[in-house]
Task: inverse folding
């Protein structure tokens, strides 16, 4: 239902999408699967290839997809030593800006393979500024934008970067997909940051078929944290106690009507002011023993004051 | 004789009659009449600008921050000439709200605004300001929110601890004065208020061309441009007193969003020992100099959780006047903690200035939490249970585990991160 669609609709949200992979779970196949999906939707797809050769990237795609991809090759000659006509001015960033300038109406997907390569070769601030400018072209609110929505898909290898660039790029991204998995099953943890709303996250299990189409799955049987054994019912500690934890209704009423010692209410005032009904309510019994002197005279009579 | 003279002059001018009368006056005391316009030898006059009031503590002129609860915590408001720094929360959801309340307060009071951002166009920021709750409606809205918030248990009168009922409550009711206003976060400010206000915007990508050659100077070009822009506005519009014939004085409210992020061209969030690590601190120093000599107040939001070098954060704190940190519970383990279930995050007041004073006006409430209700942003006191020794040691174990995970396969320089472990 709705949850399965999150990985599908990654690119429809637009903006910057980061794809974090690691040594155990590689991300290029997911990148190629998303590229194929947007090419099939009829969007313009541009690839900035820096890490692998063009032949390797195009491998596995059938010919009509390959014809739709616009490939900018920065792998063969990254420093532009050959100085040929095909050399793109301004390097990868120049190519990014050029893509944005000549955008025809219609959504555009730009896939960066890989953004890690760009981060290692370019200053981080320049890259951040360029990515922000590219992914926020349609920043006018309420405008259905004659310029199409731009999605930038960047592949990042998380072990290559320190916490600084990671944090900086994460704060710019609209969506972050982190690859992981267990027992041979790959999963994508998708974190979606919308501008003024709480971020939402979701984990989606998937696998990539040989023709780079995306197969969404339900995930292995034990997915979330291991729960307790269902055969043993949870123990209620309030049973079999030697003292009473609850109050009955009568007891509660009696408690509520109790007057506390430091409260001075009118009843207490009356009780103190009322004269005592009977004085002779207590007696003292005394048995004199042999040493007592029961003299009725007052010893103070001898004093002459 | 004097009487004969005055009769003789008949319909003489009153001035001469007064002059003769005053010459025969017994006492030398003279009543000082009201001066029409301020001259140099008049007595000290209180500057009365809309939306400001003098502090009861030290006489500084204060402006409201847009949140009356925050004003109360800061000792009445934000003093003119000072910087309010807000450390953003991790996903940047609540700090823009404080930023916008500050600007909205400026519009409602008729102050001039200067909005600077590298991320969003200032015109768009102004479109999204919250609508003010005006006096008649505000009491109804406030009461309705408070009523919805109160749970049945809290309505029981305290019986045993009855002395605590006499303590003053933390929240203050709606104030229908001209100083602080309440804002409705779910509605937008009416368009005519924005159009009636005077504002200047600074959007970095427009001001700086992408192929600008970066000279090896001490300030990032973005910061230099921003400082020049601020200085131009201050001197052109006379906020620093350079235009004496300006009759009505006004306050300039400056808002700078996401200062220090890579979009400003500053790399303190990207690397620990960048090339321009003093750029931000120099900017703040010059900015504070500009503010102190003009009638302006500034709010800055900064993503300090991204800054890699902790020493820079300490320097930035020292160079600002008021520093408030927002910590939201989203994504942390506190989100599910029942202790914090009513709130969306914590507010830490990290610094309050001592302006012309030996002591600072700190409130005695240190545990503060905020929540964003449907309409209002409220700050309340958080009652924490006593800190038992189990939880203290458990959290420190968690920190250790986290830091060892970060070290990983990266080399020493890249793995600086949170804890600086020396090998």
Result:
């Amino acid at each position: 239902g709705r949850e399965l669609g999150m990985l599908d609709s990654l690119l429809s949200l637009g903006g910057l999408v980061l794809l974090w992979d690691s040594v155990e779970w590689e991300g290029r196949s997911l990148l190629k699967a998303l590229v194929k999906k947007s090419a099939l939707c009829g969007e313009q797809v541009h690839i900035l290839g820096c890490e692998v050769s063009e032949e390797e990237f195009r491998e596995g795609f059938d010919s009509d997809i390959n014809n739709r991809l616009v490939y900018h090759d920065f792998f063969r000659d990254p420093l532009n030593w050959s100085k040929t006509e095909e050399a793109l001015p301004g390097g990868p960033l120049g190519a990014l800006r050029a893509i944005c300038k000549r955008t025809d109406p219609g959504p555009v997907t730009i896939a960066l393979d890989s953004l890690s390569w760009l981060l290692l070769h370019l200053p981080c601030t320049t890259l951040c500024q360029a990515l922000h400018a590219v992914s926020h072209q349609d920043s006018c609110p309420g405008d259905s934008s004659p310029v199409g929505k731009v999605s930038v898909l960047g592949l990042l290898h998380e072990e290559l970067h320190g916490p600084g660039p990671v944090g900086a790029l994460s704060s710019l991204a609209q969506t972050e997909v982190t690859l992981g998995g267990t027992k041979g099953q790959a999963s994508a943890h998708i974190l979606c940051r919308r501008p003024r709303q709480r971020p939402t996250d979701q984990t989606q299990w998937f696998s990539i078929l040989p023709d780079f189409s995306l197969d969404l799955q339900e995930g292995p049987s034990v997915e979330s944290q291991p729960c307790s054994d269902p055969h043993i019912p949870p123990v209620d500690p309030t049973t079999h106690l030697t003292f009473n934890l609850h109050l009955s209704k009568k007891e509660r009423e009696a408690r509520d009507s109790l007057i506390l010692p430091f409260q001075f209410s009118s009843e207490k005032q009356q009780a103190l002011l009322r004269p005592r009904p009977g004085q002779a309510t207590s007696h003292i019994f005394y048995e004199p023993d042999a040493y007592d002197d029961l003299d009725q005279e007052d010893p103070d009579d001898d004093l002459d004051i | 004789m004097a009487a004969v003279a005055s009769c003789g002059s008949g319909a003489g001018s009153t001035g001469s009659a007064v002059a003769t009368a005053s010459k025969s006056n017994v006492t030398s005391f003279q009543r000082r009449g009201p001066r029409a316009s301020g001259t140099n030898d008049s007595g000290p006059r209180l500057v009365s600008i809309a939306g400001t009031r003098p502090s009861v503590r030290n006489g500084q002129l204060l402006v409201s921050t847009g949140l009356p609860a925050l004003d109360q915590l800061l000792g009445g408001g934000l003093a003119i000439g000072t910087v309010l720094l807000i450390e953003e929360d991790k996903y940047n959801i609540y700090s823009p709200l404080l930023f916008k309340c500050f600007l909205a307060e400026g519009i409602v009071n008729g102050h001039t605004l200067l909005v600077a951002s590298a991320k969003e166009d200032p015109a768009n920021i102004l479109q999204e300001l919250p609508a003010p709750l005006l006096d008649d409606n505000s009491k109804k809205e406030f009461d309705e929110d408070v009523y919805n918030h109160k749970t049945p248990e809290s309505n029981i009168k305290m019986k045993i601890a009855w002395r605590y009922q006499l303590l003053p409550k933390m929240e203050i009711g709606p104030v229908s004065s001209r100083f602080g206003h309440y804002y409705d976060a779910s509605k937008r400010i009416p368009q005519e208020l924005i159009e009636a206000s005077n504002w200047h915007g600074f959007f970095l990508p427009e001001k700086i061309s992408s192929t600008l050659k970066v000279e090896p100077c001490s300030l990032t070009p973005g910061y230099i441009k921003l400082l020049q822009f601020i200085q131009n506005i201050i001197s052109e519009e006379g906020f620093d007193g350079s235009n004496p014939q300006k009759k009505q004085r006004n306050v300039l409210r400056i808002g700078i969003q996401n200062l220090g992020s890579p979009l400003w061209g500053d790399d303190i969030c990207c690397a620990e020992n960048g090339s321009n690590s003093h750029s931000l601190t120099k900017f703040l120093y010059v900015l504070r100099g500009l503010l102190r000599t003009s009638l302006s107040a500034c709010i800055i939001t900064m993503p300090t959780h991204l800054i890699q070098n902790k020493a820079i954060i300490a320097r930035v704190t020292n160079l600002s006047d008021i520093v408030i940190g927002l910590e939201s519970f989203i994504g942390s383990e506190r989100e599910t903690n029942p202790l914090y279930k009513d709130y969306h995050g914590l507010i830490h007041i990290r610094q309050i200035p001592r302006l012309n004073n030996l002591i600072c006006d700190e409130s005695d409430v240190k545990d503060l939490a905020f929540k964003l209700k449907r309409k209002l942003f409220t700050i309340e006191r958080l009652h924490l249970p006593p800190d038992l020794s189990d939880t203290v040691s458990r959290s420190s174990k968690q920190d250790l585990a986290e830091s060892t995970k970060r070290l990983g396969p990266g080399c020493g320089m890249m793995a600086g991160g949170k804890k600086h472990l020396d090998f």
User: Anything to note?
Assistant: The interface with chain A takes residues 91-93, 96, 118-121, 124, 127, 159-160, 162, 205, 210, 261-263, 265-267, 269-272, 303, 305-306, 308, 330-331, 406, 408-410, 413-418 of chain B (CB under 8 Å). Residues 389-407 of chain B form the longest helix (19 residues).
